[in-house]
Known about the structure:
Elements: H1 10-27, H2 37-48, E1 53-55, E2 58-61, E3 65-68, E4 72-78, E5 88-95, E6 102-107, E7 116-121, E8 127-135, E9 140-151
Amino acid sequence: xxxxxxxxxxxxxxxxxxxxxxxxxxxxxxxxxxxxxxxxxxxxxxxxxxxxxxxxxxxxxxxxxxxxxxxxxxxxxxxxxxxxxxxxxxxxxxxxxxxxxxxxxxxxxxxxxxxxxxxxxxxxxxxxxxxxxxxxxxxxxxxxxxxxxxxxxxxxxx
Length: 158
């Protein structure tokens, strides 16, 4: 019995859809995204623009040697009085070798209290991590740390 659109069985439709979907998965080739030091510098230029990026006032606390890059504790602290006239407006954390150069951006105002936060991040390889703080006067300050990773994270294809 020939199957036409009018007498197509449910089983035949599902089998055809599954075969088509499986074929698409086989044909799709995905290259993993990969941040580079150049990509990180481009993001830094996007954040800072033409303003000078000064070292200091930002403390980036990461372990210098990490056995597993899947959960790396990180704390960022900025030296600021957090008054209405002098406060942190944003903190950006960037990396050189994860799939994307952005790790996290935190926006705040003078009512935020202490200008610091802690989280856990993934690191795909041994690399440098940079934190950039934008201040209410338009200045940018940075801190950085190199981290050695023995078992990398971020290895899955996207």
